[in-house]
Amino acid sequence: MAGLRGDGSQNGKMQNALAEGMDPWTRARGILEGPEKGKEEFVVGGTKRYTIGLNRFFPGLMKKLIRSNPLQRIKKLQRIFFRGQKRQ
User: Fold this and answer.
1) Read out DSSP for 41-71?
2) Which of 13, 22, 47, 49 has the fewest CB atoms lying closer than 10 Å?
3) What integer pLDDT is reported at residue 46 of this predicted model?
4) Span 14-23, pLDDT tens digits
C-alpha cells in the first residue's frame, strides 16, 4: 500500500508504519488467542502495545506526541524506556 497525499492521490511510496507492520496472520492469531486464554481485555502488537499504557497513565503526553509526528517520537521513547527488552 502506498501513502496518500492531501488531495487523495497516491504518493507512490510505502508508508513506514505499513512497511513495519505486523503480519496479518500473526495479528489474527493474537486476536483469536486472547479470548481463548480467558482474557476480557488484551492488546495484540509488538512494542507498539506500550503506547496503550502510556495513554492510560499519561494521556496529555500521548496527545502531544500524536499531534507532532507520533511514529518518530514513539520510536524514540521505546529506545529510551525499553532498550533491553526483546521486540516482538
Assistant:
1) S----SGGGHHHHHHHH-HHHHHHHHHS-HH
2) 13
3) 72
4) 666 666 777 8
